[in-house]
Write a structure and sequence with these properties.
The protein is of the alpha/beta class and 332 residues long. The chain has helices spanning 12-19, 37-47, 54-57, 74-83, 98-111, 125-135, 170-186, 275-287, 298-314, and strands spanning 3-8, 27-34, 50-53, 64-67, 88-90, 115-117, 142-150, 191-198, 204-212, 218-224, 233-237, 240-245, 253-258, 264-267. Residues 4-117 form the Gfo/Idh/MocA-like oxidoreductase N-terminal domain.
Length: 332
């Protein structure tokens, strides 16, 4: 069955996501939404779909709407689509704030409408294989997770990556991957401790997080927009470890070290850029009538949002949601 997609947002993320439609024959782009009809038309001329403004695309006849705008616009767009009964796949982070995420999740659950954060990493073949190895007891009990995601970017206060009003900063843009991975393999932490540095405009330039658990488990995570890091992740168990790489957020390989045995290297490449697995998964969830993903559940998304807000608060940052013109009356 063909899944009819709409997309809100016409930037780099939207274009990258649509590149992988070539690997999913039953995914079809039917609508493109942007702030202005002109921007939507320019994007649709290259990618297909009917050009619309945001108020029109959230009310369009779709199977699912992919929201790929800056973080502070996610809440209003998701709420408007849900109010029209349209399933949503919302780019990470789900929203700019914990309260915003709670609004979206509550609205989706009360309406019985599918909603998922676009944490594509969880659906990569390598991460799915790591989950299976852990479940099978191959490395014993996972007691710690280590992950880093750093990228050197030249500071530009008006660019989306650095502008606080657009959800800029290391935690919301890069740290979300590390935190989601820790949540995936360790569950909800008891405490969050964060330290880091700020850009001149107050956005977070780097952040180091320690997530601790009452039973002694822990996660050490780092995100930075000031320096490129190895971008690897390691799951440490009582009888071995699994290294996810070479870049854990889009991995192609696992290195499995079992106690007393030589390291085993498993090659597990993604199809296309890797978004294809997410696109297929959403289509399968919709076909099965699910309102939440079993791999990226909304409860996990809310915990990740809580961890990010705790970390940002300790750095002296208070994120805020934005508004989308024309959608104020669609809040639920």
């Amino acid at each position: 069955m063909t899944t009819r997609w709409g997309i809100a947002g016409t930037g780099w993320m939207a274009a990258s996501f649509l590149d992988d439609f070539a690997h999913v024959p039953d995914a079809e782009l039917v609508a493109v939404g942007s702030r202005t009809l002109e921007r939507a038309r320019a994007f649709a001329a290259e990618r297909g779909g009917e050009a619309m403004t945001y108020p029109d695309v959230v009310a369009a006849d779709l199977d699912v709407l992919y929201i790929a705008t800056p973080h502070p616009q996610h809440r209003d767009l998701a709420l408007a689509a849900i109010a029209h009964g349209t399933p949503v796949l919302v780019e990470k982070s789900l929203t700019a704030t914990l309260d915003g995420a709670r609004e979206v999740v509550t609205a989706a659950r009360e309406a019985g409408v599918f909603c998922m954060e676009a944490m594509w990493t969880r659906l990569q073949p390598a991460v799915l294989a790591a989950r299976e190895l852990v479940a099978a007891g191959e490395i014993g009990e996972v007691i710690s997770v280590h992950a880093d995601f750093g990228a050197h970017r030249v500071y530009d206060p008006v660019h989306r990556l650095f502008a606080p009003e657009l959800g800029g900063g290391a935690v919301l843009d890069l740290g979300v991957y590390c935190i989601s991975l820790a949540q995936h393999f360790l569950g909800t932490p008891s405490r969050v401790t964060a330290t880091g540095s700020l850009f001149p405009n107050g956005a977070d330039a780097s952040a180091s997080l320690l997530l601790t658990y009452d039973d002694g488990r822990a996660a050490t995570l780092a995100a930075s927009l000031q320096a490129t890091t190895g971008r690897r992740a390691t799951l440490v168990g009582t009888r071995g470890s699994i290294e996810i790489g070479p870049e854990f957020y889009r991995p192609t390989q696992l290195v499995v070290r079992r106690e007393g045995d030589p390291a085993e290297v498993l090659e597990l490449p993604a199809v296309g850029l890797g978004y294809s697995h997410e696109i297929v998964h959403v289509g399968e969830c919709l076909a099965e009538g699910l309102t939440e993903s079993p791999v990226v559940p909304l409860d996990d998304t809310l915990v990740v949002q809580w961890v990010m807000q705790e970390a940002l608060g300790q750095l002296g940052i208070t994120p805020a949601e934005g508004t989308v013109p024309g959608l104020s009356g669609a809040r639920v």
